Amino acid sequence: MRLGPAHLAVLMLLVTPAAANAYLGPGLGLGVLSVAIGGFASVVLGFLGVLWYR
Description:
The protein is mainly α.
């Protein structure tokens, strides 16, 4: 099967990413940091809970 110019044009339009126009506010950094600390703390506390309550 051979692709013609119209097929290639449609393919290029489908593959080209569009702009997201998303705003990443200043609170995003604190949210990511809170999730990282919470995930780490839950792993550590889960491990300690298994060791403490055998």
